[in-house]
Task: inverse folding
């Protein structure tokens, strides 16, 4: 008995396509199982321990709102996640295209300074959404 022949192209596409399938399955789950109904998802450990909103709080509800076509609710739940989705999609397309035909694709290159800026943005978002004047950032 012989095994299936795995071509180099299939091998190179396996990871990005596998990640897309996993993200699609998780997104479908969140679309069907409402995060606003208690008991379906675990609580955020940071919020449960501190009663403060972390940068990720509201992400499941934002994804749920997006899958139901409610962009305003998604931005209210977690605007940072909504703003990051096009960048993540761009990076995924670059990941998918780069091995496919030997092209450089649309790679997302992050310089060290940009990485620090990104971490600073995430931390600032987490701090600001807990301050009284920025309660609009809270989920």
Result:
């Amino acid at each position: 008995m012989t095994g299936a022949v795995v071509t180099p192209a299939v091998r190179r596409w396996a990871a990005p396509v596998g990640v897309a399938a996993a993200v699609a399955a998780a997104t479908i789950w969140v679309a069907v199982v409402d995060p606003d109904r208690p008991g379906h998802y675990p609580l955020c450990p940071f919020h449960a321990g501190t009663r403060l909103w972390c940068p990720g709080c509201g992400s499941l509800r934002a994804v749920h709102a997006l899958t139901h076509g409610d962009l305003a609710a998604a931005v209210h739940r977690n605007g940072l996640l909504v703003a990051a989705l096009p960048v993540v999609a761009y990076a995924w397309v670059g990941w998918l295209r780069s091995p496919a035909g030997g092209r450089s694709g649309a790679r997302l290159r992050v310089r060290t300074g940009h990485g620090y800026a990104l971490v600073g943005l995430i931390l600032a978002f987490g701090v600001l959404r807990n301050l009284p004047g920025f309660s609009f950032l809270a989920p």
